[in-house]
Write a sequence for this structure.
């Protein structure tokens, strides 16, 4: 542990959370099962880093289980390697400062790791159980619990691409499947639109990125751009993600839109 590590103490723990959230003044012990949602981290306002992760279900020690997500913020040394500390589906006991609305907590200390709790263990088993939906057009779609998306592989204009359908806690993807069905039923038409939009939006920028004296025409640009995956969102929006063929030195080419508005945006994230 770093000698300069000075975590906040007592009620001062609330300063770890920079969100507009009210906390209680009492440190309590909670037991819970670590969620499969992603973990994160960022610099704290003191000489520490904030490790962010979540419990999928939890309880105040000795009380009833709450099947609700609890976000945990844990101050750790600046140089700590913390992402592997708590694996999804494992059970732990922490001393925490709990928010008034009981949706967030700041970890004061680890009380006990890998605790035994039959009720929480049953929930942990369900957390890792595969959730698979069978569809006619897209075959099996498997839930990626870490990002809460259903994922699969589909045929787009005779090309195999990954498809992801964002969902919510209810795992309802009815609207997403309807959007995907319309897109794929008219794949050739949409591909023409995507190609034209990508050229109009990004060809000039692509040539700005090329070495001096080198220029791409529209055909060369499209030949180097290759579709990797399609993401469908609950509100009818979608994103087409392309490999850039090193046009933008490894950045993806993202084309976004919706069935109602058509293609509306382009970006080169990554």
């Amino acid at each position: 542990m770093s000698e300069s590590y000075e975590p906040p103490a007592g009620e001062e723990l609330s300063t770890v959370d920079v969100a507009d959230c009210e906390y209680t003044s009492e440190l309590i012990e909670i037991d819970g099962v670590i969620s499969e949602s992603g973990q994160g981290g960022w610099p704290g306002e003191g000489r520490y880093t904030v490790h962010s992760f979540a419990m999928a279900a939890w309880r105040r020690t000795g009380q009833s289980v709450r099947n609700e997500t609890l976000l945990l913020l844990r101050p750790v040394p600046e140089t700590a390697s913390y992402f592997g500390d708590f694996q999804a589906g494992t059970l732990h006991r922490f001393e925490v400062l709990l928010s008034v609305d009981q949706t967030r907590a700041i970890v004061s200390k680890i009380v006990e790791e890998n605790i035994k709790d039959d009720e929480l263990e049953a929930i942990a088993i369900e957390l890792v159980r595969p959730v698979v939906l069978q569809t006619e057009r897209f075959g099996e779609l498997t839930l990626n619990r870490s990002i809460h998306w259903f994922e699969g592989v589909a045929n787009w204009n005779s090309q195999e691409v990954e498809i992801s359908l964002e969902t919510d806690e209810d795992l309802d993807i009815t609207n997403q499947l309807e959007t995907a069905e319309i897109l794929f039923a008219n794949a050739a038409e949409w591909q023409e639109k995507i190609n034209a939009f990508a050229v109009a939006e990004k060809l000039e920028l692509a040539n700005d990125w090329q070495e001096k004296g080198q220029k791409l025409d529209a055909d060369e640009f499209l030949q180097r751009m290759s579709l990797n995956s399609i993401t469908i969102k609950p509100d009818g929006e979608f994103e087409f993600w392309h490999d850039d063929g090193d046009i933008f030195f490894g950045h993806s080419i993202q084309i976004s839109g919706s069935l109602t508005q058509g293609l509306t945006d382009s970006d080169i994230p990554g």
The first strand starts at residue 23 and ends at 34.
